[in-house]
Inverse folding.
């Protein structure tokens, strides 16, 4: 579902629980982050293709993958564990900005937003009764 179509939906549908991981706003935001990481990493030095380029891409891709995997887990503890793994991958991605191989400045606000959304998502799961 693209973001434009979500804006046209009735508010009751927007507040309904997600039926699949790709309906989660946090997943949609981190998916956009991953696309940005791939664009930026294309400009890293060729000597880093098996180093930083590979590591940054794998860390970035693991964030939405862990959110997706955790979404299908039945137990709250499992769900929260996968969100926490995704949060660890966010920290891995944060580290790359210090290495100065590419302009990752436009990715940092996205990463911060995803980090806050995941924190909120995790807190909500921990506070829920189901």
């Amino acid at each position: 579902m693209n973001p434009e179509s979500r804006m046209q939906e009735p508010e009751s549908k927007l507040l309904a629980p997600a039926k699949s991981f790709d309906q989660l706003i946090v997943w949609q935001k981190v998916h956009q982050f991953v696309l940005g990481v791939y664009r930026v990493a294309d400009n890293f030095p060729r000597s880093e293709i098996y180093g930083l380029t590979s590591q940054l891409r794998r860390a970035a891709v693991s964030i939405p993958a862990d959110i997706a995997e955790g979404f299908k887990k039945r137990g709250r503890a499992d769900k929260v564990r996968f969100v926490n793994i995704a949060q660890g991958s966010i920290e891995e991605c944060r580290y790359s900005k210090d290495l100065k191989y590419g302009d990752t400045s436009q990715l940092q606000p996205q990463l911060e937003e995803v980090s806050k959304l995941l924190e909120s998502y995790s807190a909500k799961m921990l506070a829920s009764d189901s």
